[in-house]
Amino acid sequence: MARQLPREVADKSVCPGINLFRMELLRLVVGPVLVKPRAGGMGLYDFGQGIELLDGIDDEELERRQTSERNNGRLAMVAIMGLMWQDGTFGEAPLSYMNKNGFWGEPVQFIVQHINNCQSFSGSGIDNAGVCAVPKRHEGRTAMRAVQKLAEGDYVELETYPKEMEMSPSVPFLRYPQVLKGWVGEEKGFDPLGVTDALPVYWVREAELKHGRIAMLATVGWIATDLGFRFPGEKFQAVANSVEAHDKMVEAGYMLPFFGAIGVFELFALWLFFQSWPLGEGINREAGDYWLGKQFLPKDPAKEKDMRLKELENGRLAMFAFSGIVTQAVATGKPWPFM
Q: Residue 213 annotated as binding?
């Protein structure tokens, strides 16, 4: 005879949670071994459980529900790993730990205390010195501060500038970013987020020039397309406006060779970037210099710097302009000038 459980345990009205847990555990562990997939089902995973939720729905809704189940399952796998790591590291459940130590938790200095992140660029043509990530002193919580070499030559933290510090002309309540000295546009002193304190100006200027040039070309191309300029050919003439140009070119099969050509240039640009100072030792190259169009620069150094500044400022304006053009085109559904 089967062993009988005590009445208070067997009674579902007393402990329904335990019984439900046992039933679910039995289904998950024993089910796949003893239960065969449903005949005519959707696959080996279909055991005929919960199919009543799928009655009367079309194929699109079925795909949506299955996608939701898969996505939730993936999220749950990531979540359970996080919960297990939390319990194993701090020996406490996440909610109780958060209630005790706050949302950010206790200091985690032990995670990064052995990391040494420091790079020196003192060999560059424009001495922007070194950039180091160091923990904040006298505080347990991890904080990384970028330190830079000032004009006097000493490494100091950003908060320990001299009392009579030079202020930014464009943002008078902020200090002047010393690392911009010697670069085109230095007289503006505009870096309110302190990006050049954490990254070399060479990196930042390379990225800014590339994005600015692309934005200028994109702005002109977008307006020209909306005004009716097209390449010869029926497929190009069928494009109504710039918004649908991408999808039309994908359908026509032109985007793959187009991106292939861009990819070749980008690989060359990346190699060139890492071969140049202050990263490499092979090429004496300024940020953004691809040896195209330099013959049009004025010979006078002052006028050359002014021309470089115009390119930089026009590129910055074009990045804002292109963002506004795309937003208005999609919002209004009309071609340029969106009226």
A: yes
